[in-house]
Structure prediction request, 462 residues.
Amino acid sequence: MEAGGIGTFVSGFPADFGWGTATSAYQIEGAVDEGGRGQSIWDIFSHESGRIERGENADISCDHYHHWQEDLDLMAELGLSVYRFSIAWPRVMPDGKGPLNEEGVGFYSGLIDGLLERGITPFPTLYHWDLPQALEEEGGWMNRDTSQRFAEYAAAMFERFGDRVDLWLTHNEPWVAAFVAYVAGEHAPGGCEDWPLALRVSHHLLLSHGLAVQALRASRAASAKIGFAPNLQPVHPLTGSPEDAEAARIWDGFQNRWFLDPVFKGSYPEDMLAEYERFGVEEAIEDGDLAVISSPVDLLGVNFYQQATVKHDPDSVFLGVAGVPTRPPLTDMGWAVTPEALHELLLRLKRDYGDFDIYITENGAAYPDEWDGGDIVEDPKRVDFISRHLESLSQAIADGVNVKGYCVWALLDNFEWAKGYDKRFGLYYVDYPTQRRIPKRSALWYRDQIAASRLATPQEDE
Ligand code: GCO
Prediction:
């Protein structure tokens, strides 16, 4: 690849900092009918009419299932030290329970070995929203038993990969899996405005997280590090009105504290329990659940995209609170660019929840990139986005936050859920008809940033 040649580089990262990218199984793998894979709720949902823009689905997507070696080579060219991917539960356990599908296990085993051969630390997520459809047919996450099934699946993965994997995540963005799925109805399995169900699901997701943490401690991989990766946002009120201040408190409770408090403090936030009382939330919470959910973790994954600016809006389906993207320019998702909010968030996490390892498990931006047939796709806005977030991160490290790594979302352009393929987040542009990967300027910049950072802080053994 040619030199990145633009931008300045951000300093202040420790020598052993984990430079990474992230992806998820359904968004990149394709090969949905191959290798003995079972169906997931996203296979069903994406084939239902009207669910996904332009009627798209991820049956093929980036076809990473067949291109994984080439994709690992891209990571090696960037000089990555860590790769966050997800294991598709239905690929390794087609029915969500029972015997493992050896072909599926073999796929991830090869991927893990391929990463290790290239000096890249594998960082798998056990659940990035692709619940086996067989379990959905038994009630899915509404059914408390699914938490137990998840722990069994997790235990099987610790058994198979625990000899080579030292970093694990249980859930990706449980807020999305519960509320975007069952209140907004925009994600699989797609129920609408069902608050009692969404809350029950959120509790079962958290319970399954705690059970999986316990399963790790009881496994051969007991000394590995584990955590989860919620999507977190500092929340600011749009105006100084008491209504907007109240809206900000609710949104912070709804999105941040509802997931952080049980894991790190062993209790749900009182104000949110009161808010949710009308939805019968306490019925789902059994004695002892919070002790399981707060089983000690080693790390927190932070998926960060933008600050939330909110106002009171009686018409919003989300507890009378609406988000307002206030400051243009926005990304192609309509999200604000607020790098300073990452620093704010990290300091708040340390203040309110304690001093544990933090990995930025997702951060990135969609822009309408265009490929002209050449060797590089120019994406100056993404270079600017990533470098400004790294500045903010470096400031948080200087201020004493224990940040261990940073993963750009995403390595490749991919299937952006209900938005389909139109939203491009990748460091590499994917030309879907040919499956060719073309580096964007941001990939070259990121590679040079990683190299510059290593040069500034040489490893002891170099
Ligand atoms: C999420 C997921 C990713 C998305 C990314 C961009 O945050 O929704 O973890 O799968 O693709 O965040 O929206």
